[in-house]
Amino acid sequence: MSVPDRPRKLLLVVDAPSLLHRNHHARAYTQVTDRSGRPAWALRGMLRQIIEAIDSFAPDAVLFGLDDRTYSERAALYPDYKAGRAEKDAALVDQLDRAGALLDALGLLTLTPPGLEADDVNASGATWAEANGWSCVIITSDRDAFAHISEHTQVLRLIDGGINGSPLLTPKRLFAMYGVAAEHYLEYAALRGDASDNLPGVSGIGEKTAATLLAQVGSMRAVWADIEQNEGRVLAATLDAWAEETGRRRMGATVVRRLSAPGAKERFDFNVRIMSGRHDLELGLTPDVPGSRGLLPLDPDRVSRVVGFLDDHATTTLAVRVLSTDPASATSR
What we know:
By secondary structure, the protein is an alpha/beta fold.
């Protein structure tokens, strides 16, 4: 991770369920508990990563997205949404249910949008930051957040190396990874599909073809218009010209046939609808009001008491130092 210069204020948006899932699987072997004897390894790991991120980025405000665990608009629209995932371990469910209360008790800002997910908080956080002249960093392990990457929004994609060993993705780095411009990532994902959410892609259009298609044509709006109005002739010619220039097999006719197949556009449009994050959530951020939720520093006694309940002295000490320090005094890195 390389933290960039800070010409603008910074909003840190944390996908809390994503961190909990990763820490549950990574730390379950420890079986550590809090002072009441309840499972605490995922909560400890999540909180440690949050503190490390705040220490590294010195954000001006922090927002935590949580999933509505009682109802899902996406599952109501598509009952097979996320079907096939293994049933959650009871200890993970317990910690997912307690995460919001833990963060609220610290005095941090959490948002559980009714019927929606942390992904929607990610999207709305990026939109809020742009509208208010801030920068934004989203912390998650979910690729859906890549659709929000821009010149002012970056994604810290959590991998096995933790906060400090994870890549901070910019538009340039995203293109290097996938060959897709950030503004077209949602279209790329909709073409490819998402097995983790049980969303099939457009039949016959894999990751490489999707990336090439968008790189050469620019947007799916232009692709669908050419197929509808011109039987895909411009699309086919563009892809075949690219193939000739690069020494690859001609693919124009095949791609046009697959995108023209019955249900192809409907599948793409449906995936875009399901994958799109909500950009209009009311976040409750009031950065001009000192002491309001989402702003640092926090009360040190409160931090010590709440984090201390997890029965981890090292994390408690770090939390008091980082969360109780005025971010204005932190050094930008």
